[in-house]
Write a structure and sequence with these properties.
Elements lengths: L12 E8 L5 E8 L11 E4 L3 E5 L10 E6 L5 E6 L3 E6 L3 E9 L4 E9 L4 E4 L3 E5 L3 E3 L2 E4 L7 E5 L5 E3 L4 E4 L3 E9 L4 E9 L4 E4 L3 E5 L3 E9 L7 E4 L5 E7 L2 E6 L3 E9 L4 E9 L13
Amino acid sequence: VDDNGNVKATAPGFATITAKNKHGQKANCNIYIIERNDSISVENFSVSVGGYEAKGVRLGNGNSDYIVDYSSSDMDVAEIKIENGQIMEVWGERAGTTTVNFETASGAKGSCNITVTNEAKKISFESSSITVEQGGTKQLAAETTPTPTSSKITWESADESIASVNQNGVVTGKKAGRTQITVKTDNGHSASCTVNVTNPVRSMSFVQKEVTLYKGDSTNLELVIDPAETTDSISYSCPYSSCELSDAGKTGVTVTSACTGTYVVTARSSSGVTTSCTVKVIDYPVIVTGISISD
């Protein structure tokens, strides 16, 4: 420093300049001398919501330089503080990206991008199994914790020939059977749901709408189902105890009646389709073998 108070910096560091008058009074001024810096940088990085990161600021050749000003493009994404002029502390607030701009005491400028992630800690289905018809679709919904999440979610089917799933979780039934649909996050969490593909009855009818049989005899009521490969079960009923049903299956039922009368036999699929056949039971005819006339 010269007699006029002009200070010339000769090296980085800290110095105290003292001025004294003729009466011995003194005044001090502390001066911090920094190196001129050409660049400042911080690598782009990520932090989770609720998480904390501290990053050192690279100051090129000017290691004695320090940050005097900074700004964020979105302060709602992350809380940012500069510690000791060279450490950036970050607290994640919500998922998103913000750009932070810096300026040092020597005038150097730089920036970095901070991405705040909201990674899934868990993923699950509301139900462990669903049923979808062959040729039909059904939406599967996976729930993540937290919701929403920044984690990438993918879907896959264990057997695409039975049921497929797209990346929106829509399941399509391909053929009757059972398979697993699995949803995964890119950070290692997963959940599975069992998919049962059914092939329900669309229509069915008895070959004969009406039959006649003699009391005590039996007849088979043949049933035609569409589709023939249905996964439905078929049940048969008759409101009268004298009407006996046996050998019931998907191709028909055997009916036997001990009493004369008119009966209605109904077939019902487990998906709710019905059809019926009217059965008339009559006595055997009386066969006349001879006639005699007496006086």
